[in-house]
Write the structure tokens for this entry.
Amino acid sequence: MSRTTAPRKVPRLLIASCAFLFISGYFVVRFPDVEGASYASYAFNLLIALPAFIALVRQLGAVRGSAALVAVSLFGYLIEGLGVATGMPYGRFYYGDPLGPTILGLVPYLLPLSYVPLVIGAVAVVSGHGTTLRRIVLGGLLLVVIDGVLDPGAVSLGFWIWPDSGPYYGVPLSNYGGWLISGLIASALVTWIGGRRLTEVPLRPGLLDSLLVSMFLWLGVCIFSGLVFPAVLAAALIVLVGRRRLQLTRAATTARRDDDPVPAAPRS
């Protein structure tokens, strides 16, 4: 009789990664000017992004998964480049030196490594049920909430700069209108390309891992930067994403059990 091993509810590597990234938030805040930090961020962001990238390709298949990654990456470059060049749709801002070299002086090369996993995670949180429109709207709204953590932390680190400042920890409210627009489009891209593989195939818990560890990093950044409300928001998102991951893990375990062959009854 075949035996299957149930997946751990929370893998040890994921727990260790969350703890490591939370602690890393302290060093990012306290030691921002370490030599070579802008280049080291490429490796750092790649390691954070890999779980979501791999899970998406496994969820959608090689062709659809790669298409979704490329589509959201190109969209991210275009919408962020438009934002820096024209101020639309976020408001007037530009990227700081800590994120390293930029394309045409506009958008950092590493943008897809930080943006795309957030989109994948947001779509995974809301996917699996409901109409396509509902999932796209909820995914876009969730990305706005996620940016409520990211932007204050990033501004405090000099990752991007708002020359005109704003009422939310130096961030203008127009930024969140822009994030809603971009979030709806990015969610739509993943949802439409994914199609039935996001509704009729059990979702892989790994789709959420990059978002989860990223939130632990930004929780650390917000706490050690004294950003109280963004830290509370990050903690709430961690609970939401963590609960969703446990739900997907239980569903995957049930699906494996249902797929196990039923042993034949012994002959009397």
Notes: Confidence is low (pLDDT under 50) at residues 1-5. The longest helix spans residues 228-259. The two ends are 19 Å apart (CA to CA). The CA atoms of residues 136 and 187 lie 5 Å apart.
